[in-house]
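Practice record 12: protein with adenosine-5'-monophosphate-propyl ester.
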Amino acid sequence: MPYDPISKPHLSSYKVQPNLPDWDTARKSHSWWDIYKELDWLPGGGLNNAYNAVDRHVVKGFGDKLAMIWAGKNGEEERYTFREFMEHSGKFANALSSLGLKRGDRVFIFLDRLPENYFVSMGTLKAGGVIGPLFSAFGPDPVRDRLQDSGATILITTPDLRKKIAAILPGCPALKHIIIINKNGRSKEPLAGGDLSYEALMAKAPADFKCVPTSQYDYAIMHYTSGTTGKPKGAVHRHQAVIQQYITGKWCLDLRKEDIYWCTADPGWVTGTSYGMMAPWTNGVTQVIYEGGFGANGWYDIIDKYKVTVWYTAPTAVRMLMRAGEAPVKSHKLDTLRFIASVGEPLNPEAVVWGNRMFKQAIHDNWWQTETGAIMCANYASMEVRPGSMGRPIPGVEMGIVDDNFDPLPPGKPGLLVVRPGWPAMFHTYWNRDEMYNSRFKKGWYITGDTAHMDSDGYFWFQGRADDVINTAGHLVGPFEVESALIEHPAVAEAGVIGKPDPIAMEVVKAFVSLKPGFEPTEQLRRELIQFARQKLSAAVAPREIDFLASLPKTRSGKIMRRLLKARELGLPEGDTSTLEDD
Ligand code: PRX
């Protein structure tokens, strides 16, 4: 059984954090229960996050308000009100019910940033299903691992993405239905035998759907996240996470009813669901969805054209904008921007200072993770921003720094970053891996896997990861996943993967490879291996660099010593090598 602090009476044990700014002390009287009251329980009882994001605004008379402005990658534009959003998601919920979807069934969504991605996500949640978002740049291996592990029964995708992963589908026997979305007839691919057409399902489904009475404890969303060892595991969140997503939308992103909000994260990652779906829409805010990729001019065009007021983005993107320089800033009208925030990696102080110069305001860094489900600490709108710091914990959340024995350290001392369990958006388990989940809790703390220190004013400062997980452009990459892909290549005997510091992406994935007898370490093979990993995994996860070594350093028990590979790569002291295998 997963360790379950949520069922303890934490909901009434709200504690005001010391040193919070005035606006926050004004919220002293709030407990999590008070915040629940700002959300709507279902008419017959129960809590559903999608009902709170979509339907309730219609019930409350805001059906004509714009929920979504979609800017397609080919210049298309579509706009949807909350009423239309309710109808589309309701149709899809009806379609799923007619396919026999049961409460708790996993529905995986392998789509680009299309309006339909949001319709099917909300529809699934309203129908009581659990959504599993998949990053559309994934190659076949990550998709196969996630479908197999979760036992997903329904996959929703497009003709082109389906083609990319066709080979792995027979290996996913739990899949009952594949639903294909052919947005505006973009693809000429015929529907594969047995697949269902989204457009056909929607054409015959009624728009009226009475939300399934999920409880706040029902599972809603699972996101796969990487660790040091093993394949990525599915962090599962419950409907109740919505309360923290809603309130941090207000507290940490300063969302207000009149805002035009843009979150640049893809819904394949947790920021793209918690803050690209739940936070803005539960707050009744209009959100811009941009299907295209990064480009300084393209991005500034979005802010300029749609008069974006609140912008939530990531440090790598900010660094790329810095590199693009001042000219594209000058050629756009960006003065509608009222609040900018960033997450996912350390935001360097220079980026905050640059943001201040370009946009006349600070970029507000905040910190959280897939497992936390929502923002945990932040530089708030009302508080002094300390460039380089991730800010202070939100009300009701206690964070700390502990030593290797999980005992508290005083301010200024670096150690493991930990959180007191029991916040509403806390993950409830790793899917089918309760033991691993339980191992993340020590001496009454949740161990985040990060290291940091806290200053005497309660601001937290990120230091690094306590494990081998690589953070490249805000994407966590487990070295094991990349090593496993590489050793499937016939030339590769062993592979060791590390994160190598990079001025833009924070880290890039670097692999060290030893070859099987008969293979030569040529430039051509290096390129072939990179290509091989890109096709299997995705460009975001595959190694950017590969070095050939005659053999890899291993412990006597045969484990590749990534730490040593990294120290050698960076020219750092090699540390304790007493467990190193003799050559
Ligand atoms: O190492 C921390 C880093 O990103 C990790 C969480 O990544 P993920 O689970 O993919 O969740 C992404 C949603 C935020 C953290 O354990 N990280 C996140 N925010 C920051 C950060 N590192 C430094 N500063 C941050 N503000």
